[in-house]
């Protein structure tokens, strides 16, 4: 499969050319592993957030993939190196390959199964008939069990076809229902899901975003115009499966959520190593760094003027989605509901050796830590919600946007005053235990776009 056909999108476009000293690069043939590794070393020494921790002595006689890993600090799970003409170097996931995601659930009676939590609208999974809430008991001839989790993930990432056994719960037993086969193919963009919800005598706007693709701003205007036209008094933003993407699109969303973010208003701070320094951007600067099809002034015409926003999160919420949570806080009350976010408070560039055409490797190292204007950041362990709620407490899973869906229902309880938004209230149901399987937001397609 050609690079351009892979279900994999790097959501930032800035290209740096890093050239090592001429005398060093001439030591090895262009494109050889040693030459590639030398380029990686010089590039990382200049841009990597933890450049001062790169070993002074390295072994160039390794594959570039292994060499790049040897340069990373222990806790860096996001930086990655990819060879453009080798699809096998691209990290894959069930979401990028097949267009859905799942968690493994074990109930109090030891019943264990994979629960489909999201399906991209235009995806192989959707075309195969998978739906949110489907129960999977077998994947590629592997029974779903706690012991098989790693085997299952290896099978998924290494397969072009998934053979799934779908079951249903009846009288606390799993009953086989049907078999489904899903082929790895392209998944296209997930449409926005927006609704106006009636709650008592008020109206609440609900917006679900699967990711922050570049150029999203124009699509955001219509639901916000509807929210504004319907005079909603509350806004619920569902980012539970949003692994991030473009900061420009995240900035566009923030600018629509509150009218306090005007042109020139400080919004985001990037802090790098001694070479990168500190970069401060206003909301309109952050917006302008993406390929948007609408002007900032036109966008702001649809902005709301609410005192508070309710944001639904999970362990899949990361990167630009966490920027929305953290960077709105200086301007509007943010009430977070659900589970703790992943904790990706860093941004990366695309770095390529443009001086050596034979070098096909591209690296995506973490370069900046991200903060809001109050210098608040460092949420590497995730951002804690005000109200903790377990999405899997009640099965079957309800459709996203349904007032009966667990996390949305929890948000509505906060809005109506039936649950305190000031207390970290555990509403986890002990009958279910979730085994977290590789959060989608850990994947490198969710890197944040940053400006030069």
Structural account:
The protein has helices at residues 22-25, 33-47, 64-71, 94-98, 124-127, 149-157, 217-229, 247-257, 283-288, 296-300, 320-328, 406-415, and strands at residues 15-17, 80-83, 100-107, 112-119, 135-139, 142-143, 161-170, 173-183, 193-199, 202-208, 234-238, 266-271, 278-282, 308-313, 333-338, 346-348, 350-352, 361-364, 366-371, 387-388, 425-426, 432-435. Helices cover 22% and strands 26% of the residues. Helix 8 packs parallel to helix 11 (320-328). It contains twelve helices and 22 strands. It is α/β, with parallel strands linked by helices and 452 residues long. Residues 1-25 and 426-452 have low confidence and may be disordered. A hairpin with a 4-residue loop joins strand 3 (100-107) and strand 4 (112-119). Strands 3, 4, 5, 6, 7, 8 and 22 form a seven-stranded antiparallel β-sheet that branches. It comes from Elizabethkingia miricola. InterPro entries: ClpP/crotonase-like_dom_sf, PDZ, PDZ_6, PDZ_sf, Pept_S41_N, Tail-specific_protease. GO terms for molecular function: peptidase activity. Pfam families: PDZ_6 (PF17820), Pept_S41_N (PF18294), Peptidase_S41 (PF03572). Keywords: Hydrolase, Protease.
């Amino acid at each position: 499969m050609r690079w351009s056909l892979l279900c994999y999108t790097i959501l930032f476009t800035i290209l740096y050319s890093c050239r090592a000293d001429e005398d060093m690069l001439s030591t090895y043939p262009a494109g050889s592993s040693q030459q590639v590794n030398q380029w990686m070393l010089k590039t990382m020494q200049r841009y990597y957030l933890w450049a001062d921790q790169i070993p002074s002595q390295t072994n160039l006689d390794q594959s570039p993939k292994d060499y790049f890993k040897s340069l990373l600090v222990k806790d860096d799970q996001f930086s990655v190196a990819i060879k453009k003409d080798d699809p096998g170097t691209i990290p894959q996931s069930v979401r990028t390959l097949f267009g859905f995601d799942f968690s493994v659930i074990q109930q109090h009676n030891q019943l264990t199964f994979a629960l489909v939590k999201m399906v991209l609208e235009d995806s192989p999974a959707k075309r195969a008939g998978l739906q949110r809430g489907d129960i999977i008991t077998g994947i590629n001839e592997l029974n779903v069990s706690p012991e098989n989790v790693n085997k299952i993930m290896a099978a998924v990432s290494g397969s072009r076809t998934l053979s799934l056994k779908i079951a249903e719960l009846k009288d606390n037993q799993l009953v086989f229902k049907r078999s489904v086969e899903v082929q790895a193919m392209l998944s296209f963009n997930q449409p926005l899901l927006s609704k106006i919800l009636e709650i008592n005598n008020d109206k609440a706007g609900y917006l679900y975003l699967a990711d922050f693709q570049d150029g999203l701003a124009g699509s955001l205007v219509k639901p916000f115009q509807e929210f504004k036209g319907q005079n909603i008094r509350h806004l619920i933003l569902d980012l539970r499966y949003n692994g991030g993407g473009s900061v420009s699109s995240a900035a566009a969303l923030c600018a629509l959520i509150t009218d306090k973010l005007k042109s020139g208003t400080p919004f985001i701070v990037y802090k790098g190593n001694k070479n990168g320094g500190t970069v401060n951007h206003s909301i309109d600067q952050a917006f302008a760094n993406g390929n948007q099809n609408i002007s900032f002034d036109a966008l702001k015409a649809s902005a709301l003027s609410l005192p508070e926003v309710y944001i639904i999160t999970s362990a899949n919420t990361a990167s630009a989605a966490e920027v929305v949570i953290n960077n709105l806080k200086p301007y509007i009350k943010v009430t977070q509901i659900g589970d703790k976010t992943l904790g990706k408070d860093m941004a990366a560039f695309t770095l390529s050796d443009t001086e050596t055409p034979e070098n096909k490797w591209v690296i995506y190292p973490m370069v900046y830590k991200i903060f809001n204007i109050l210098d608040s950041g460092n949420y590497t362990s995730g951002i804690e919600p005000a109200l903790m709620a377990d999405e899997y407490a009640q099965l079957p899973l309800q459709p996203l946007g349904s007032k009966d869906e667990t996390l949305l229902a929890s948000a509505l309880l906060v809005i109506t005053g039936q649950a305190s938004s000031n207390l970290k209230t555990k509403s986890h149901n002990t009958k279910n235990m979730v085994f977290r399987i590789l959060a989608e937001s850990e994947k490198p397609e969710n890197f944040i776009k940053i400006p030069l």
